[in-house]
Amino acid sequence: MELFLARIFDGLSNGSTYALIALALVLIFKATTLINFAQGEFAMFGAFIVLVLATEQGIPMWIAVMLGMIVTAAVAAGVERTLIRPFDPADHLPLVIITLGLFLLINAVAGIVWRFDPRAFPELFPSGNVFSIGNAPLRWYTVFTLITLFVAVGLLTLLLNKTKVGLAFRAVSSNLESSQLVGIRVGPTLQFGWAIAAAVGTLGAAIFVADPFRQLQPNVMLTVLIYASAAAALGGLDSLGGAIIGGLAIGFVQSLLVPYTPIPNELSLAGAVLVLLVVLLFKPSGLFGTAQVERV
Amino acid sequence: MSDQHLLSVSELRGGYGQIKVLRGFDFHVAEGEIVVILGANGAGKTTTLRAISGMIERSGSVKLNGEELITTKPADIVHKGVAHVPQGRGTLPELSVEDNLRVGAYIRKDDDVDADMEQWYDVYPVLRERRNQRAGSLSGGEQQMLAVARALMSRPNLLLLDEPSLGLAPLIVQDLFARFAEINKETGTTMLVVEQNAQLALGIADRGYVLESGDISFDGPADALMNDDKIRKAYLGV
Predict the structure, then answer these.
(1) Contact A177/B92, CB-based, under 8 Å?
(2) Which residue among A64, B149, B176, B203 is least packed, with the fewest CB closer than 10 Å?
(3) How high is the ipTM of this complex?
(4) pTM greater than 0.95
């Protein structure tokens, strides 16, 4: 029972990060039906910006996080304008290759600038435990990652539902041609999506490495991206709520798979891949996604 | 002369990639008019509207109040006062009815958006009842009403309507066209309607053009077209 609880708590905190990265993936997917494979690397890059601002410039941690989100949003907006928009949005293969290229590029640049040695990341949340049930501590870290997740989702929902640019973004996600016909400029609207996604991703990476048991290095988001992709697929790829449920569910799958099945720790990533496979095979539209119906 | 018209189109050519559909023709729409473009399937009616609103490659001249729009992008053409209800209605299925109307007013910066929305809810009460429903859950006729109301939310000078009767029951279509005539009278919105249902369209129109294989073969006042033998045989089925 204690083991079970401890693993559930682990699943919650990991799942919060997966949910945030999945949210970022879903934001871009909704609008463009494209998976941005560089989403995790954008987030890692953002976490490094936060680290530099906080440790070298002495900026308070939460302000550094917000600045990091703004910086990555600006970078993502620039990337969208220069590397994504010139290509035909209907032709996915070149775009997928571009996001894969970005993935390698950002990873390599981060390695050159910040090296691959792990670095301690300043704490974002109070340390210590809320309570312990036997050997199963509920850490403040876990509580605050969840709070951060829900605050971020709340703000994102407000942004999408209560602002004009949010309305335009939802319109473009729903019907590109009709959006143009009401006067929405599609390019800048998608650019806004890329920027918001990158900011959300940075928040996800920051809370991930803010765990005192983790450190920041350029490869830190590699496996997270795979868990997050599985989470996004499970949630339905075009559903924001689905990304959250999916993220937390994948967090549980990961943390419960290892102690309760003969799968060795090294293969826990396979659990995520397995979920991804099962979803794609049996319910491609995920738990909360819109089923794609093509009328011909 | 041509600058007096709200819309002056000349030598309009356009198509899809290698396929040239419009073969260079002229027409115009004067302020306050309802003009109908008739034609069979594949004559280029939809392509003509898409060329006006910039959704396809086109050449020639499309002038709105004398201003050339032939190289203007679709979103900017909307800002100039052209609203286009595409074929198949083009509502935003995942968005609520109310959000669809709000998005129609996307280009506006004034404070009367809510008042306008109420006005269209009065014209189409069923939309008020379903304001919080997803647009995709509406019936075909309701979606057409929504598409028209959404286009009017931008307070256009020129409303382009692409086969509004398509796929709708005859009674609904009659009601829809009666409303077009009313809206035209009450708001003075100029309309360019593309339609296969010639009888209905000519019934509310001031003038009409007949499009055949990408070229205008005929034009005249609506009642003259209605009484023309050739038109009656080809498009009115009498």
Answers:
(1) no
(2) B203
(3) 0.90
(4) no
